[in-house]
C-alpha cells in the first residue's frame, strides 16, 4: 500500500515539476543534509539537550519568549507566582498550561509551587529547559537567573534564545532537523511521518523554483 502511494507520488512529482526539477531538489536536500550534519555535530558537542519534541513545543516556546518581552508580567522571585508578579518559569506556566489545568494555591488562588515540578500539566519541553545548566558564562539554572542573578525578563529571553534559538531554527528550516524531530521524537506518531515529509519536500521545492 505504502509502496504504491510512494510510486504514485513520485510519478506525480515528475509529471508536475519535471525530472530535472526533481533531481535538483533531491540534490539540494542531500546537500542540506550534509551541511546540517556537520553543523549539528558541532552543536551537539556543547551538550545542549534538545527540549523540543514536536512543532507545537516551538510555538509554545516562542509564546513564552514573547510574554517575557511583552511587559505584561511583573517580575517576582522564589515562587511561580506571588502577589507581586511571576518568576520567569511562572510566566511559562501561565501562558502554556491551559487555565483549567493550572494548579493553584488553595489559600491565595495563585500558581502553586516554587518550580515547574509543582505543576503536573507543565509541558515536557519546559521541564527539560528548567533542568538544564545554561552553557553561558553564568553556568546556572533558569531559576537562579531569575532569583539570584536577578536577570530581567528581557535578559532571560535573550539567554533562552541564544541557547535554544538554533534548535528552533533547525526545526523550521533544515531537512535533518525535520527528520530528527519526526523520527526520533515523534516515533509514536510515525503514521504521520510520510505525509509530513512529503509536505516538507514540497515546501523545499517551492523555495528553489
What count of structural domains?
2
Strand content: under 5%
Low-confidence stretches: 43-47, 172-176, 181-190
- Please count the helical segments: 9
**Structure summary, number of beta strands:** 0
Structural class: mainly alpha
Taking all Cα atoms into account, the compactness measure Rg is 21 Å
Write down the secondary-structure element order.
Answer: HHHHHHHHH
Euclidean distance between termini CA atoms: 31 Å
Write down the overall geometry: elongated
Q: Could you give a short account of the major beta sheet?
A: none
- The chain-level mean pLDDT equals 73
How is the quaternary structure best described? Answer: single chain
Proportion of helical residues:
55-70%
Quick overview:
With 209 residues, the protein is mainly α.
Descriptive account of the structure:
With 209 residues, the chain is an all-alpha fold. The chain has 2 domains: 79 residues, no CATH class; 115 residues, no CATH class. It contains 9 helices and no strands. Helix 1 packs across helix 2 and helix 3 packs antiparallel against helix 7. The protein is elongated, with a radius of gyration of 21 Å. The two termini are 31 Å apart. About 10% of the residues have low confidence.
Sequence-ordered SSE layout with sheet pairings:
Layout: H1 2-17, H2 19-44, H3 55-69, H4 88-96, H5 124-130, H6 142-147, H7 153-173, H8 175-185, H9 193-208
Name the features:
single chain
